[in-house]
UniProtKB/TrEMBL annotation:
InterPro entries: Nucleotide-diphossugar_trans (IPR029044)
Protein name listed in UniProt: Uncharacterized protein
Length: 77
C-alpha cells in the first residue's frame, strides 16, 4: 500500500501528520490495512521442504525492578 501525503484531503493529511508525530511511523497507512488479511508465505523453497527436527527455543523477558513489586510473599523493592 502506498499513501502519498500530497494526494490526500486536509483531514487525511492531519491524520497522516499526527500519526507520524505521535508514533514515528506511518500510522495512517497502518490503520488502512485490514487486520483480517492473508499474508503470503515468503519462506525459501528449501525451508518448506525441511524435515529435520528443529530445536526448541526459550525467550527471556527482562523487566526493570520497580518499588512495590511483589513476587510471592517477598517484596522485591
Amino acid at each position: 500500500m502506498k499513501v502519498r501525503r500530497g494526494d490526500s484531503t486536509q483531514v487525511e493529511k492531519l491524520k497522516y501528520d499526527t500519526g507520524f508525530q505521535n508514533n514515528a511511523f506511518n500510522q495512517y497507512a497502518s490503520d488502512l490495512i485490514s487486520v483480517h488479511r492473508i499474508l503470503p508465505i515468503t519462506s525459501d523453497e528449501e525451508c518448506k521442504r525441511t524435515t529435520q527436527m528443529i530445536c526448541p527455543i526459550s525467550v527471556v523477558i527482562s523487566l526493570p525492578m520497580r518499588p512495590g513489586l511483589y513476587c510471592g510473599e517477598q517484596c522485591l523493592v
